[in-house]
Hints:
Structural class: alpha/beta
CATH superfamily of the largest domain: Spore Coat Polysaccharide Biosynthesis Protein SpsA, Chain A
Strand order of the largest sheet: 14-13-10-15-20-17-21
Strand content: 25-35%
Radius of gyration: 24 Å
Shape: globular
Amino acid sequence: MITQIRKDRGRRSETFNRRDEVVEPRLTSTSILRPGINPDMINLPSNCIDESAVRSSFVSLGTTVHDVMACINANSQRIALVVDEENRLISTLTDGDIRRAILDGVTTDSRVEEVQAHKSASGAAKPVTAPIDSDPQRLFEIMSERSIRQIPLTDRDGRVVGLVSLEDLIPQDIQSVRAVIMAGGFGKRLMPLTANTPKPMLPVGDRPLMEHTIEQLNYAGIRDVKISTHYMAEQIVQHFQDGSDFGVNVSYVNEDTPMGTAGALSLMEATDVPMLVMNGDILSGVDYRSIVSFHSEHNANMTICVRKYEMEVPYGVVECTGANVERIAEKPRLTFFVNAGIYLLGPEVHALIPKGERSDMPDLVQSAIAKGYKVVSFPIVEHWLDIGQHADYQAAQEVVKQKGSDS
């Protein structure tokens, strides 16, 4: 059963019904608001109670995970509402819910019921709804109390007729995240293409590879971008300059000698905001907001993006205990999660990088784990290419060409 917030117009407090139990929540005050947030600034936009708009978030039982993700990506609220034939709420699913299920074996061809079952088994709380005429400040307080970002709004018959998110109540973006693009590599495996052009500046479609990445950062609301350079740095600086032509603020750190995939980060000043670090030769359709939300949901110190990789062993694999054969599997398919070259680091992890020394990301990951920090994995199910070889470069051209024909 769904948790329902019921308003008692004669009182300042509200009650939550969970099954047959009635719980009086603690009274809240403006002390739960983030610093600088005036409660008078909290308003409910009209689009939150637009029934036709909220329907874009609806999915039904039997929908595939692929289609649920498409629904989440297509609507501004970043959530899917699983409803019955009368539009009564069954469950809510976020991008993070789906990716956690994928890490446990759910695929994009699975049905929404499998994600619901995974979410329930993990101990997730029942979804919260509120009446359509709820006070905006109270909605904000409930989000703070329950650590949720969206609340479906219902009419007197329990049908979902609206949807409000934290961003609706307090418009914001994620400019407090700094992006770092590692663009100093030589691109030797792509010779002769990289003889006179650094790999991030190779054309993919009608523009350089790294311009696709910066466009995605801008779309996600990430404006602070640092680029680490070494090989043919002047071409990168000349193209992007201060970033104003691309809607972001770009600054540069040049490696006099290659310092590895993490070493260049030690050349950057300390910051009190998370750092989204990515290799400059990656082309992916992932929405960076999803990574930031996932990192926050897990209270992580470091998030590593991963990609599912499958390989078929071309032989029968014999499993033995000593000399005894336990079983034989004919040409099994093995599944792994591989490093996708995108990371989100908390300031405390950035502080672990040795100053002025060569170091690589796997070293930093192990240091964070040894320190007891929480390191989590974020599965990328969108298109993803590590453009390290000529075949990858050709595949990137096809991805961009297909994306253009679909738009």
